[in-house]
Amino acid sequence: GVNYFMSKGILDDSPKEIAKFIFCTRTLNWKKLRIYLDERRDVLDDLVTLHNFRNQFLPNALREFFRHIHAPEERGEYLETLITKFSHRFCACNPDLMRELGLSPDAVYVLCYSLILLSIDLTSPHVKNKMSKREFIRNTRRAAQNISEDFVGHLYDNIYLIGHVAA
């Protein structure tokens, strides 16, 4: 579809213009879009910068991100790339919060991955013994030091009450 729009002069062949088109169009086939963005990382970079996560709670920002850029079903390099790009953008949008909480993009990456795994754990019918809040706090604080127990507890509560971040 993008190639058709470019051939008709409707869309410029620039990553920034393609990213704006994708960002503003809600009815694209997300499976084909995922393949396209995996092949066109330059467009993915520009698409990520269109997101404004300022003053958003981390799980809500992650949900918004995955509404525009659908997460792959399997873990792998593409998911890692998405989480890395999200983490850097989230930190860029919230520098004061990052300083206040003492978080780096790497720590946000760990938190995002933890939130995705927690989401799967809490929503999957195949998981019999759901992760408790205490277990999530312990595991997350081991993986990303210097994070407040209260903050991690709020992350758990958000996933527990609102649901999956990458659905």
Automatic annotation (TrEMBL):
GO MF annotations, alphabetized: guanyl-nucleotide exchange factor activity
- In the UniProt record, the signal sequence range is none
Q: Where are the transmembrane segments?
A: none
Q: Which InterPro entries match?
A: Sec7_C_sf, Sec7_dom, Sec7_dom_sf
- Superkingdom of the source? Eukaryota
Every copy of the SEC7 domain together lies at: 1-162
Gene Ontology biological process:
regulation of ARF protein signal transduction
Q: What Pfam family does this protein match (any one)?
A: Sec7
PANTHER family the UniProt entry points to: F-BOX ONLY PROTEIN 8, GUANYL-NUCLEOTIDE EXCHANGE FACTOR
Task: Report what the protein is called.
Answer: SEC7 domain-containing protein
